[in-house]
Specification:
The protein is α/β, with parallel strands linked by helices. Among the domains are: about 170 residues, ANL, N-terminal domain (Rossmann fold); about 100 residues, ANL, C-terminal domain (GMP Synthetase, Chain A, domain 3, 2-Layer Sandwich), CATH 3.30.300. It has 19 helices and 28 strands. The strands form five sheets. A 13-stranded mixed β-sheet has the order 2-1-11-10-12-13-14-15-16-23-22-18-17, with helices on both faces. An eight-stranded mixed β-sheet has the order 7-6-5-3-4-8-9-19, with helices on both faces. The longest helix has 24 residues. It is globular.
Length: about 575
């Protein structure tokens, strides 16, 4: 290591120490500093030396210092950190008995539930990798992931047993046997999850060679094509972006975090881990239903939650008299992510819940990249905030040159959280990578104060008459119309212009609007060529489970209608 590298390493260590100190203070550890805290810090150091990191070390730490501390709520299941560690230990022994070892993969085909946390922590000790499988997927899609990932075992909820049965029939060249398929809740012909736990010891297992870290494989949403498995080995993952991120918002030891986004997605799982890091309690709900969410916030005294914009849109769309029925004053922060946040929606959320809204940018492939603080999104419409420590961002044009301030370029990121690559897909990994930086196809620009703004996705950009058009700014304008609940704009084939714009509109309850009215609304603040040439009114926009609009489906609707009328 040369002098320059040594200085850079020292500077990074100082930055991380400062972030750690802010987290220690913000979380409230300084208020309870005592013998237990000293023991906890000593145990954390011992675990790190033994190679035990991540979820298992976090759970053990809190189980050692405060075993009765609430760890999670999942319906009728309420577990303390001591109880959670015992279940995690039993599962670790059970996985080893199944033959799951370092580097091997276990599919997680689950609804939101405590099993996710237990499996993640157990695989951390074993050194295995969790393969996250969305519970909305059909048998053919599940079969593809089992084949592509090379998973050796599968944990699933009993309600999904019919899909598992069909997927196992469809899958080719897989190493999963029925004996390695474990049903949470029990299912005929499969071993039950509780039986597997009962077969394992409650004592903390020893770390094996190659264990102590674990990893994850998350299949991308697939808005433009077949899903790709983004892999991440926790052993190679740095902590600077995580520590800097946590130090910027009020994460406390008394956190009661509402987990409503799907845990098979990286965002929800990341915030569960952060809350556990400080000894908070995760309150897990299986499905999103707006009024039930408000009821849960009041009943459980929820202090924070992470949501995609679609969820927040449905919350603030509830009649004011319904929202007023529930006490949500316990909320300290709401984190928005996974999909673009319309500025008008940000205003409505802050009007309803106060200045508690944060917005971050990141991706399964990149980890945490930028964060916008409360009020910044509305003060600087469309911003995704400023860069998080440990990140480097390049905005590049089509020739790979960095664009000037204010100009749109493809957003490339380099940090210590980058994925290792797309599993068994070197071409896709190569296409996403440039000089150690990774892009997921987002277009963005930066202002003179260092704030970043998403322009659109590269695949969503429309070229009409030779002019680049970014649908996101048109959608932003449409969202400001008082009758519009949601909007999505796509490019469709046009004989004269190459592509023209079509807008899909979800109207607010009891509201109406005409094509001419909306067209004039757009033209009032944007150039005429950015005005959609056709409007279609729908009850809902097709979305991935993480809130991204499936624009390919919208394009297919228009092209199918064009073909039918030809």
């Amino acid at each position: 290591m040369d002098l320059r590298q040594s200085i850079a390493k020292l500077q990074q260590t100082v930055r991380m120490a400062r972030s750690g100190a802010r987290i220690f203070k913000n979380a409230g550890f300084s208020e309870t500093f005592g013998a237990r805290t000293v023991i906890a810090l000593a145990q954390a150091a011992r675990d790190a030396r033994r190679g035990i990191k991540g979820g298992s070390a976090i759970i053990h730490l809190h189980a050692l210092t405060d075993p009765l501390r609430p760890a999670l709520v999942d319906g009728d299941v309420r577990l303390s950190y001591g109880e959670l560690e015992e279940r995690t230990n039993r599962l670790t022994h059970g996985l080893r008995a199944l033959g799951v070892g370092p580097g091997e993969r276990v599919g997680a085909f689950l609804f939101n539930g405590h099993e996710y946390l237990e499996l993640s922590a157990a695989l951390n000790v074993v050194g295995g990798q969790s393969v996250q499988i969305g519970y909305r997927l059909k048998a053919g899609e599940v079969a593809y992931i089992l084949e592509n990932s090379g998973a050796r075992a599968l944990l699933f909820h009993s309600e999904l047993a019919p899909v598992v049965e069909e997927a196992l029939t469809l899958a080719k060249n897989v190493s999963i046997t029925r004996e390695r398929c474990i049903a949470a809740g029990g299912a005929p012909g499969f071993r039950s999850y509780e039986e597997l736990l009962a077969s394992g010891e409650a004592a903390r297992p020893a770390t094996v060679a190659g264990g102590g870290y674990g990893g994850v494989m998350i299949y991308t949403s697939g808005t433009t094509g077949r899903a790709k498995g983004a892999t991440r080995d926790f052993k190679r993952m740095g902590l600077e972006p995580v520590l800097d991120f946590i130090s910027r918002f009020p994460l406390r030891r008394d956190e009661r975090h509402l987990v409503v986004c799907p845990l098979y997605h990286s965002m929800a799982a990341a915030f569960v881990t952060m809350v556990s890091m400080v000894g908070g309690c995760n309150v897990i709900v299986r499905h999103f239903e707006p009024e039930e969410i408000l009821r849960t916030i009041e009943r459980e005294r929820i202090t924070s939650t992470t949501m995609v914009p679609t969820m927040m849109s449905r919350l603030v769309a509830l009649p004011p008299e319904v929202r007023r029925k529930y006490d949500t004053s316990s909320l300290r922060w709401i984190m928005s992510g996974a999909a673009p946040l319309p500025t008008e929606l940000a205003r409505r959320v802050e009007d309803a819940f106060g200045p508690v809204l944060y917005n971050f940018y990141g991706a399964t492939e990149t980890g945490l990249v930028t964060i916008a603080m409360p009020g910044e999104h509305t003060a600087r419409p469309g911003t995704i905030g400023r860069i998080i420590g440990g990140n480097e961002i390049r905005l590049l044009d089509g020739e790979g040159r960095e664009v000037p301030v204010g100009e749109v370029g493809e957003l490339y990121v380099r940090n210590a959280m980058l994925m290792d690559g797309y599993h068994a897909n070197e071409e896709a990994t190569r296409d996403a990578t440039r000089e150690g930086f990774i892009s997921v196809g987002d277009l963005a620009f930066k202002d003179g104060d260092g704030y970043f703004y998403l322009a659109d996705r590269k695949t969503d950009m429309v070229i009409s008459g030779g002019v680049n058009i970014y649908p996101w700014e048109i959608e932003q304008r449409l969202h400001e119309h008082p009758a519009v609940q949601e909007a999505a704009v796509v490019g469709v084939p046009d004989a004269e212009w190459g592509e023209s714009l079509a807008a899909f509109i979800v109207l607010r309850a009891g509201q109406a609007a005409t094509d001419d009215e909306l067209g004039a609304w757009v033209k009032e603040t944007l150039a005429d060529y950015k005005r959609p040439r056709r409007f279609q009114y729908v009850d809902a926009l097709p979305r991935t489970p993480t809130g991204k609009v499936l624009k390919r489906e919208l394009k297919q609707r228009v092209t199918a209608a064009q073909a039918a009328s030809a």
